[in-house]
Amino acid sequence: MEIIIHDTPQEAAVAGARMVARLVREKPEAVLGLATGGTPLPLYRELVRMHREEDLDFSRVTTFNLDEYLSLGPEHPQSYHHFMREHLFEHINIPKENTHIPDGMTLDVPAFCRDYERRIAEAGGLDLQILGIGSDGHIGFNEPGSSFASRTRIKTLTRETLQDNARFFDGDPTLVPRHCITMGIGTIMDARCVLLLAFGPGKADAVAGMVEGPVTASLPASILQHHSTAKILLDSPAAATLQRADYYRWVRENRPSWQQD
What we know:
The protein is of the alpha/beta class. The protein has one domain (2-241): 3-Layer(aba) Sandwich (Rossmann fold), CATH 3.40.50. The chain is 32% helix and 16% strand. The chain contains eight helices and ten strands. It has helices at residues 9-26, 41-54, 80-87, 109-122, 159-165, 185-189, 204-212, 245-253; strands spanning 2-6, 31-34, 62-65, 67-69, 99-100, 128-131, 153-156, 179-182, 194-198, 230-235. The strands form two sheets. Strands 1-10-9-6-2-3-5 form a seven-stranded parallel sheet, with helices on both faces.
């Protein structure tokens, strides 16, 4: 686990976008796992800028999104289909058929989840998975208590997650769907590289638990301590309660000249 602390979310997002861009340039047919919510927005804006101004080519890239609310169709303004079109897909040259997002309107959830796992495997697996982290330590919609071996499946959201996401539903947690389809922790851990972003003081305790606490299903993101290539991009407020923050900064400042991001 590599901890990279920046002063601002924008600086961290630009650094993350450079990592994604390097992968896409080195492997044009890369398979990306994508996240939604407020955290990855500056990263997506930077990727759009790089596409427009630096000819970053997504024409052979394949994407799989982490999750989607059950009961929301793709045209619903709070669906993750809508989110991805609005903030990324409509602004880059990725073919629509190369993008995959769970179907919130599926009538057979178990069959859909098995098929989603099959499609990821047939694409060659995820080269890079972008993640955020919930204030309770969840990744994707894998709430506390989720199995580390879990695969794509239905999950019931916690009250805390409903409250956190109420800002997208006119501030009313009763409007947030109670269920979702999410990649499992096992699915996420199969990605060859994980890039997690966390910004703001509200994520500080979850980040500290993920990085420096015990590995426990009570804080699902802590499993990333066991990932071979997990890069954790933070702003200063999100890093505020890390006991070894000075060391993480020291490591970053004293990298060998040959070591890339």
